[in-house]
Amino acid sequence: MSRYQKSEQLLKRALKTIPLGSQTFSKSKTQFPEGASPFFLEKGKGSKVWDVDGNEYIDFMNGLLCVSIGYADDDVNNAVFEQIKNGTTFSLPHRLEMEVAEKLVKMIPCAEKVRFGKNGTDATSGAIRLARAYTNKEMVLICGYHGWQDWYIGSTSRSLGVPESTQALTKAFIYNDIESLKQLVELYRGKVAAIIMEPMNVQYPNSGYLELVQQIAKEEGIVFIFDETITGCRFAKGGAQELFGITPDLATFGKGLANGFPLSAIVGKSEIMDLMDDIFFSGTFAGETASLAAAKVVLDKVEKLDTCRKIKETGEYLLSHLNQVISDLKCDFFLKTAGHPSWSFLIFLETEHYSSFEIKTLYMQEVLQRGILTFGTHNISYSHDNTDIDNLISCYKQVFPILKEAIVSQTLKQKLHCEVLQPLFKVR
Question: The domain containing residue 345 runs over which residues?
């Protein structure tokens, strides 16, 4: 009997009514190999989750980084339960909107005013509309991943359905390559409304790099936006802008803001944010109070428990041991690590006979079988502890030799119980 029998049955059923069987590409069969993966989770607590077949995992995905404290946190859940008793979405604003906004203004360097959305895409798209309204310009320069709306996704290989006229208004520059940004600014001088970027993803910023980007934006009259959908409530209390000492004009937050409850935010300078009165950024559920109640507790924990420090320390413990294992097992010809300790990456390198995705597929098959839920990232939550990391490292000590032997003996495909994963699209 398959370890994932119920998952596979549910996937077949889901595909009849839901394209891909999932609401999110990154949770779908495009990212998890059929025949060697779970596809449905049943419950979670702390750092653990259980699939519909009853298999237990230490979760290093954490809802694509939105679970920042841990699954089913008692304090968060109790606040949500109490709020639900009184209603969730009302006919007028609720004071929770103001209270959470005040906390964000207190914590985030660039935040003078706040507006809420639900997904990171809501916030980034709202920020771009603000920038265009503020500058009366249309071009947008991007670096990183910024959601599914036309203005961004049209610049990627997933541009199907986006008008060419919209695609032409967004251009990507290369992280840590200031010349790639300068060339675009020169090419579209006087036309650029916004520079939007993830302040960090796989790589750390080179010394002075973010300062140069900010300087270019200021000199050219361009609105400078940090997309902190991931880095917020993770890199530091005030996000990556606090960690790196760079204050953008606008910033977007989401993911871990409410520990898995749907909430995002645009924050920034009053003179730009006040244009919210004139642009149209309005959503029925933006002020939904269950998520705001969750966010209020999360932000209290970020401030009072210094959750970002603990998350970082756990991630540092992971990376130090992981790098040692890669070195000891002589696997550095196909593996390396990257990223911030709170959000690190296991990078699969191309080899003479195998692509990175072939190697990653075997990796996922083997780690999932051993109770580790990941697709190559280590998204740390406050609930992870060193025991979780020790279990992960123990798993890697078993799996890396399997990968190495398969690569060296050229038997990788014979070891697969599934089809090889295919890349969705590359944004980092």
Answer: 5-60+307-415
Burial label for 332, CB within 10 Å (0-12, 13-18, 19+), is exposed
Average model confidence (pLDDT) for the chain? 96
The answer on pLDDT for 2 being more than 90 is no
Gap between the Cα atoms of 356 and 125, Å rounded: 32
Say if residue 149 is in the same domain as residue 126: yes
Q: Is 259:66 a contact under the CB 8 Å cutoff?
A: yes
For 353, the 3-state DSSP assignment is coil
pLDDT, tens digit (0-9, with 9 covering 90-100), for 140-166: 999 999 999 999 999 998 889 999 999
Look at residues 281, 304, 327 and tell me which one is the last residue of a structural domain: 304
Neighbours of 81 (CB within 10 A): 11
Give yes or no: residues 293 and 312 share one domain.
Answer: no
Single out the residue in 280, 304, 328 at which a domain terminates. Answer: 304
32 and 165 both lie in a single domain: no
Whole-structure pTM value: 0.94
Helix (H), strand (E) counts: the chain: 16, 14
Report the amino acid identity of residue 304: K
Q: Give whole-number Cα distances, 189 to 142, 183, 209, in Å.
A: 15, 10, 20
Span 246-290, pLDDT tens digits: 999 999 999 999 999 999 999 999 999 999 999 999 999 999 999
Cα–Cα distance measured from residue 260 to residue 271, given in angstroms and rounded to the nearest whole number: 31
Tell me: the pLDDT tens digits for 272-283?
999 999 999 999
Note whether 229 and 144 are same-domain residues: yes
385 and 271 both lie in a single domain: no
For residues 259 and 116, state if they share a domain. Answer: yes
Q: Rounded to an integer, what is the distance from CA 254 to the centroid of its chain?
A: 9
Q: How far is CA 277 from CA 108, 252, 382, in A?
A: 22, 18, 37
Whole-number Å distance between alpha carbons of 374 and 411: 24
Do 34 and 57 form a contact (C-beta atoms < 8 A)? no
Element holding 304 (H helix, E strand): helix 289-304
Determine whether 348 is exposed, middle or buried from the number of CB atoms within 10 Å of its CB (0-12, 13-18, 19+).
buried
Query: Is 423 within the bounds of a domain?
Result: no
Same domain, 279 and 384: no
Say if CB 197 and CB 143 are below 8 A apart. yes
CA dist., res. 176 & res. 209, Å (int): 6
Q: How confident is the model at residue 300 (pLDDT cuts 50, 70, 90)?
A: very high
- What residue spans of 31-139 are helical by DSSP H? 62-65, 74-84, 95-107, 120-135
